[in-house]
Design goal:
By secondary structure, the protein is an alpha+beta fold. It has two domains: 3-106, Nuclear Transport Factor 2, Chain: A (Roll), CATH 3.10.450; 126-227, Roll (Nuclear Transport Factor 2, Chain: A). Helices cover 23% and strands 37% of the residues. It has helices spanning 3-17, 41-53, 129-145, 152-155, 170-176, and strands at 32-33, 58-67, 70-78, 82-92, 95-105, 162-163, 177-188, 191-200, 203-214, 217-227. It has a five-stranded mixed sheet with strand order 1-5-4-3-2, with helices on one face. It has a five-stranded mixed sheet with strand order 6-10-9-8-7, with helices on one face. A hairpin with a 2-residue loop joins strand 7 and strand 8 (191-200). Helix 1 (3-17) packs across helix 2.
């Protein structure tokens, strides 16, 4: 485990304790917060953690990855309700200076018996990181944005594919939800996380999709889907993306 991954694990576990020391990794002078429901700066995080700790929450970091100055994590939260999230942090040196996330209520298991978080967690094939990033980038463009469903078999290993969305497989999702643009593709080895913007039933929505790649094909998919809060409800001015 890298130092930065360890720092993020400690930061997220601070939600359980409410200890303000958990946010020491955050550079308050530079910190940019992209969760619209959280106040700006490290002090905003400290206040949030203190408030959440009163509900006796549980936090489980299922997967953690590192891509350059970014660390991103796949997480389970048990607050007043159970939630699944993706957390993305940008580092400068030893400190976090920017944060994005996407969180939804936990549902499922789905019809195939899979939950929103089960499955492999180990990062492999580090030498293929950029190849896998390119594969997912092309998939997003062709399938999720342009909806060229005739090309789906080019990307999907149908025999090995495992879906973790509680309701939709990837083909259904491509048809039902409108992806307008992708803001970020983060990758480490055989895992690629995408951050996209679009609409779900006409409502402004953030889509975070995590793919596992094997032999240049998509073999597993996890996601969270979150409505973007109206501008009047934001507690900072940085935007969701």
């Amino acid at each position: 485990m890298s130092k930065r991954k360890d720092q993020i694990r400690a930061l997220l576990k601070g939600i359980e304790t409410g200890d303000p020391a958990a946010v020491a990794v955050v550079d308050q002078a530079k910190y940019i917060q992209h969760n619209p429901q959280t106040h700006e700066g490290g002090e905003g995080l400290a206040a949030l953690f203190k408030r959440l700790s009163k509900t006796k929450p549980r936090v489980n970091i299922v997967r953690a990855f590192e891509d350059g100055d970014f660390v991103f994590a796949h997480t389970e939260y048990d607050f007043a309700s159970r939630k699944i999230g993706f957390e993305v942090f940008r580092f400068e040196g030893d400190f976090v200076v920017e944060h994005w996330d996407n969180i939804q209520e936990r549902r499922g298991p789905n019809a195939s018996g899979h939950t929103m978080v089960d499955g492999p967690t180990e990062v492999t094939e580090l030498a293929l990181t950029e190849t896998n990033r390119e594969t997912v980038s092309s998939f997003l463009s062709d399938i999720l944005i342009d909806r060229r469903m005739d090309t789906l078999e080019r990307y999907l290993d149908v025999e090995r594919y495992t879906e973790h969305n509680p309701e939709l497989d990837i083909a259904d999702k491509a048809v039902a939800m409108k992806y307008d643009r992708t803001h970020r593709l983060l990758a480490e080895g055989n895992f690629v996380l995408t951050v996209s913007e679009g609409a779900n039933s006409g409502v402004h929505t953030a889509f975070y999709d995590l793919f596992r790649i094997a032999e240049n094909k998509l073999v597993e998919h996890w996601d969270t889907i979150e409505t973007v809060a109206p501008r009047a409800e934001w507690k900072n001015d940085n935007g969701k993306f």
